[in-house]
Amino acid sequence: MKLLLIEDNPTMQATLQRTLERRGMQVLTCGDGDRALALWRSSLPDVVLLDLSLPGRDGLQVLGEARAEGLKTPVIILTARGTVGDRIIGLNTGADDYLPKPFDLDELEARVRALVRRSADSDGNGSLPARSAGWCGMQIDRDSGAVYHDGVPMELAPRELALLRAVLAQPGQAITKERLFELVFPGEDHVQPEAIEVVAYRLRKKIGHTGAQLVTLRGLGYLLKAAA
Description:
Elements lengths: L1 E5 L3 H13 L3 E5 L2 H11 L3 E4 L8 H10 L6 E5 L4 H10 L3 E4 L4 H18 L15 E3 L6 E3 L2 E2 L4 H11 L6 E2 H8 L10 H12 L5 E6 L3 E6 L2
Helix pairs in contact: 2-3, 6-8
């Protein structure tokens, strides 16, 4: 089980990460609302634990933008804002559960596991997952984030997958290298910007059979188009 913990308090973040990892969960962390959405897109967590008071975008902005993009990951809001009004706003924005601070860690774990079971049950009706409109036979599974070509999941490394999802979301439109770098290498400040070119090179070879072409626009970025 993979969790994305969006919490700006270093002590709280470290405590939750350590405790949940001891209970068998993988925990990715982020303390900045401006970086949270990119990490959410690229990591495809099973559950998001979201604080509301964040630097940059606040938690409600992050949640609202994620839902507007079609990200359906279950979300538990963890916050000191415990009034009924705050809970209603959070739930109406798209949260699945709400746990005011301070909370019991056993209760948090139980709620996380309940959300994962509920999500699995909702997908267990035998129907295909909802997918994006196709482009050269490729479609994004909105629930899992996987990319399919002619109904078959494509075998891509995580960074290749993140880049393909980004350009598939805007086929025929130029996307800057800077924007793609944020999506493919979220929070990895030690990585050189030129690394995006390596990922693009590898992805270009893997989508060649689809009829799609990843074009480099010198000085601008990349564009996905149908091969001539």
